[in-house]
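Lecture 7 notes: from sequence to structure.
We start with the chain below.
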Amino acid sequence: MESSLPSADFFGFEALLSAAEQAKLQDVRDFLAKDVAPYAADWWNRAEFPTDVLPKLAALNLSTPAQQGYSHLFSGMVIAELTRADTSLATFFMVHHDLFVEALHQFGSADQQDRLLQDAMDLRITGAFALTEPQHGSDVAGGMATTATRTGDTWVLNGAKRWIGNGTFCDYMLLWARDTTDGAVRGFILEATLPGVTRTVIGNKIALRTVQNADIVLDNVRVAEADRFAGINSFNDTKKLLQGSRILVGWQAVGQQLAAFDVARQYAVERHQFGKPLASFQLVQDQLVRMLGNATASMAMMAQVAQLQSAREGANMAQAALAKAHTSALMRDTVSMGRSILGGNGIVTDYGMAKIFADAEAIYTYEGSFEINSLIVGRAITGISAIL
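Predicted structure tokens for the same chain:
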């Protein structure tokens, strides 16, 4: 493909970054091009997580970028670029850094931060976020069945969690449970190898196959009071973390569309049918333009969300929900057109698009399904809740 073809960042949003952030983003791209993109399909096919790549990822020093003084726009673009190369690695990054490490920043005691924060930022230890349960996903706020019972300076945890990313190999989890005394939701730093913790990989997935999602069972697991998150007192604290990660999933929807456009455009230019490139057919060009339009509109929405995050009042939950819902809906449309352009080659991972197409389904669902996020926005614009 000719190098003179324009970037998928058609409106030049990257120019809004500082010079230092643009240089750092190029470092991320160089790492992804060398150490991730050539191997991502094989990891996905084998459903194996590449732990050997973590030291190189850690060397980028990008744990919780906003905590290190980077802009929210840069933080989002990092997630988009990680997703563009491999959605699974981006999901690992978000679960570990933007949920577990961010929780240590926001809610950890001085002792907890001293013990864990630097090692977690440097990926010497890995974390997970254990919230969803076998029978409670969207309704976990009111229906959480995992319990925590205090006996002296120890808490006894019982219950089960499901879909826990990084759950099979993480060293620690931020685990959420309901206090049997007052019904409040508490957060705990759970060492994953404690007696009574059982972790089982969830198999047979058609999306994010590289991510090691786990079923977690807790049978009278004893956790010290010193490992209860000191700053977490209710489910509202959970919402603070989820709002930030929901916004980043919107950036994943951007990255997924950029990936689909990259693959589809290259294929359309290089693939010949009826004696000429696919890109010479009007219907193919129409699909490529619509893919680019969807990706650009999604990036514009997320760039504005980043501006709201940087403002004093910040972005609110409804704004985060609209961004995630709308960008993920556009993403579904974009990857569908990309798969169509590749024809039969669009359903095998050899050509890149099948993996992009499949992984999009996970993005569409996690961090609040399209339907739940739509109802959050609906409540905000009408004053009437259709959820409860």
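Points to note: The first helix runs from residue 19 to 35. The radius of gyration is 21 Å.
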